[in-house]
Specification:
The protein is an alpha+beta fold and about 350 residues long. The protein has helices at about 5-20, 30-35, 50-65, 65-70, 165-170, 195-200, 225-240, 335-340, and strands spanning about 45-50, 75, 95-100, 105-110, 115-120, 125-130, 130-135, 140-145, 150, 160-165, 180, 220-225, 245-250, 265-270, 280, 285-290, 295-300, 300-305, 310-315, 320-325, 330-335, 345-350. Strand 6 and strand 7 (about 130-135) form a beta hairpin. The structure holds 2,5-dihydroxybenzoic acid.
Length: about 350
């Protein structure tokens, strides 16, 4: 049957829609093509945040509100295509969190998974279930869902990190639960570094032994820069470069070899000076942070300059190429973990 409608049919259909609207019934045939797309067409936009500019605003916020008063003093990186949604991609949230010397961000836990990627400062910590992860520049620290966490800075300098959470995903499922600990900080249960020693070296305490104290599905929560950067350098020295990715290493959860958390995946890349990656697109909208060096990103035909600590979001199914002017090291996070579980993930190497 033809999809063209006569004027008479149009008028009668409009009357039908008006009549049934109070019953909360709407016609699929008016919206089907926008609901079931032949390929992703993200409402999110490509965007780059200059770290220096964002940092200035964050420091100004630091003069006006304490971490304790705010609970979390964070500037949300809101995608310009997702205004009012506190989202950087349709499924993920990102923000820059500041803890000033002497401050505490009080202890809480929630179903949302969070990762922290340290941008600036050295020696403040996130406490996860009573164990401090002492944070150094470009460390990755996780606070998996429902694990207690507070943040504190007993150093003399501000500490700033990028927060990545699955807030929009949890909102989609209507599954947000959160609670505060009555105390400001969780009692210290073990010494800092204990989990890395027990679970961080491709070993773990014998199952069922008293020493096996972390949740079996999510034991590890600290991936220090000193370790991942060295691994990446050794990969770059020993392996053939991938034309689409450069040298790339994924962070994994040692419990299952999969992504770091059920919804969020993270990886790092090294692109040697002069290298241009071949175009690639993926269904996971991705947030990139420049760790070292500078270069450009070519996305949807537009070139964007990238400097140290700049943050860029590339939504689903946008063709992306990087050019490294110097050696370029990138951190990336996305919802690939969730998409793979839902069998949604696709990528295309062009
Ligand atoms: O540090 O627990 O950026 O709960 C947003 C929500 C950080 C946190 C955010 C949070 C946190």
């Amino acid at each position: 049957m033809s999809s063209l409608k006569s004027n008479d049919q149009r008028v009668q259909l409009e009357q039908l829609y008006d009549a049934m609207a109070p019953e909360h019934l709407t016609p699929l045939w008016e919206v089907l093509h926008a609901l079931v797309l032949p390929e992703p067409s993200s409402p999110a936009k490509v965007h780059t945040w200059s770290y220096e500019a964002a940092r200035d605003f964050l420091m100004r916020a630091g003069d006006l509100i304490s971490a304790e008063q705010a609970e979390r003093r964070v500037l949300i990186l809101e995608n310009p295509g997702l205004e009012g949604q506190s989202a950087i991609t349709p499924s993920l949230y990102a923000g820059l969190q500041l803890i000033l010397p002497g401050e505490i961000a009080p202890c809480h836990r929630h179903t949302q998974c969070a990762l922290r990627f340290v941008m600036e400062g050295d020696g403040a910590y996130t406490t996860v279930d009573g164990e401090k992860a002492i944070m150094r520049p470009f460390d990755l620290v996780l606070t998996p869902g429902m694990q207690w966490h507070d943040h504190a800075n007993h150093t003399a300098k501000p500490m700033i990190w990028l927060d990545g959470l699955d807030i929009p995903t949890v909102r989609l499922f209507d599954a947000s639960f959160a609670e505060r600990l009555p105390e400001q900080v969780h009692p210290e249960t073990v010494a800092a570094g204990d989990t890395l020693a027990r679970y961080g070296g491709n070993m773990r305490p014998m199952r069922g032994s008293l020493a096996d104290r972390r949740p079996s599905h999510q034991p590890l929560f600290h991936y220090p820069y000193s370790a991942w950067r060295q691994n990446l350098a050794e990969l770059a020295n020993s392996a053939e470069i991938d034309p689409h990715l450069g040298h790339a290493l994924e962070f994994i959860n040692p419990a299952d070899g999969g992504p770091v958390m059920p919804t969020i995946a993270a990886h790092v890349r090294l692109l040697p000076a002069g290298f241009t990656s071949a175009p690639r697109r993926t269904s996971d909208g991705t947030i990139f942070v420049v760790v070292e060096g500078h270069g450009t990103a070519l996305v949807a035909g537009q070139e964007r300059a990238l400097g140290v600590r700049d943050i860029m979001v590339v939504p689903s199914w946008h063709e992306l190429q990087f050019t490294a002017e110097t050696d370029l090291v990138l951190f990336a996070m996305s919802d690939k973990a969730a998409q793979e579980k839902l069998r949604l993930y696709r990528e295309e190497r062009l």
